[in-house]
Each structure stands twice: as structure tokens, then as C-alpha cells.
Write the C-alpha cells for this entry.
Amino acid sequence: MLKSVDVSDALHASTQLIETEGRTLAYRSVGEGIPVVLCTRFRATLDDWDPGFLDALAGHGFRVITFDYSGFGRSTGRMSYNPAEMAADPLDLIRGLGLKDVVLGGWSIGGMAAQVAMVQAPDLIRALVLIGTTPPGELVKMAEPLFYELAGKEVNDFEDVVGLFFQPRSEASRAAAARSQARIEARMEAMPDDRSPPVPIEFARARIAGGPANPAFPAPQVLEALKTTRVPILHIGGDHDIIFPVENWYALNGLLPTTTLVTYPAAGHGPQHQHPELSAAIIAGFVGDH
């Protein structure tokens, strides 16, 4: 049953700090209930989640926890975009906060980190929720060069956001992009003194300097684990994801016994920002069934 949530919860959630394994992790928490720990996308910090999505999840009885990766935002430690290293952050945060039976989520590169974390500590994970990410292994469809052009710009304007995370040819998707950006900007305006520093552009550019790669996520041990795991896995994607095409998930039909795929039409790399309430409801239903 959907709970009543103050629409300003995610707008005003203050950043908290926890010392774990020799570094400080910055995180925010919204709601109460089943813990959901969300690993964010490339070049993102705590400030880049859509508050509408976080509040919608909280409304379904989740405690929603977002965080800055080591070395990024307000977290300390060594910066890395290697999913094998990034996986330590959600796991150390889960253990540091004393969480159990966790729904682990990951968007984009965060989905790669979440997959590695699930393989490393399946006993901590109730379900894995992946958003706009890629499976391990060889791809049947590669990323579009447009992603690398837009993701490497120092500052992204609204049209860049639409191109990166939505479907530019769809008026409905464009309208959703405007609403999502307004919610994200409202958080920044509401909490101007509680913001995370942006990811250094030089570091980000170095990560994507090689352009599209196949495989994008070379992790054979993770792919084998996905084929045998008992952890329920949900992937939510858009039908035109310019970096991680959903076709690569569908190519594995019949091989991943616990994986459910949900794909929105006329949507891109940020499906949960285009459809925040529906995505939260799907996640809640999926977790509730498992």
C-alpha cells in the first residue's frame, strides 16, 4: 500500500557521513522500511538523483539510501570508475549502517558496480534492481558515439540532458525531462549549502577517452554468476538507451533465470527519471513478489 510521503522529503534530506574502512562515505536517507541502496551513474553525485523517484520509492515503504562513491562528491578515498573497485562502496555502506536484507540498485555504471557487489556478497542482497545498465560480456549492440560526445562536455545544458537520458524525438519524453530537471534543480535551490562537488571533468573524460567498447563490462565471472544466482534481478530500461542498449539484455533471454526485464517505449538512459512513480511502483511490486 502506498504511503503518504511529504513531497519535500528528498528535497531536504541532509547529507550524513560515515567512517568505514579508512574513508568517509557521504550518504542521504529518505523514508523508512526495506533498505534500498542506490549506486549512481557516471559523472553523478548525490545531487543527480531525481527527488521524485526517491520520494516515490519511499512512498512504497522503502528506506532509500543514496551515496557518493569514494573520492567523489563529499566522500573521501581513491576515485575509481572500475566496477570491481566501486562495488566496495555500497557493501561497506551496507555493513557500516548495519543493514540487512537490502535491495541493491544501480544506474548506468552503478549497475555494473551493483552486479559485482551482488556476486561478492549475495547474503546481504534481497534483490538487485538495475537501471539503464549493461550485462557483462560481448554485446549485440554497442553504444552510440553521441554519448561520448555529450558525456565529455564540461557542462551539460538541457538539450544535452535530453540527449543523454531521454528520447529527443518524443515530445512526451522531452516534457518528462523538463519536469525531472525542475525537481533536481529544486533540491539544489532548497539545500544550497548541502551539495556535493561535481566529478572532476578531467577524470571523467579519461574514463571514456577510448569511445565505445565491446564488451563494455568485461566480467566473465559476473556473467556466470548471473546465470546461476538465486537473487531476483530486475532491469528497467528505455528502448533507446544510447550508452547501454537494452537489446544486450534481451540477447540473454533464457540464460538468466532470475532476471526480469522492463522496457519503456520512447525512453532513454534515465527511465526512472522519465517515469519516477511507475518505476517505483514496478520496483515495489517486484520486491514484494520476492
Observations:
- The mean pLDDT is 96.
- The first helix runs from residue 9 to 12.
- The two ends are 16 Å apart (CA to CA).
- Residues 10 and 55 are 6 Å apart (CA to CA).
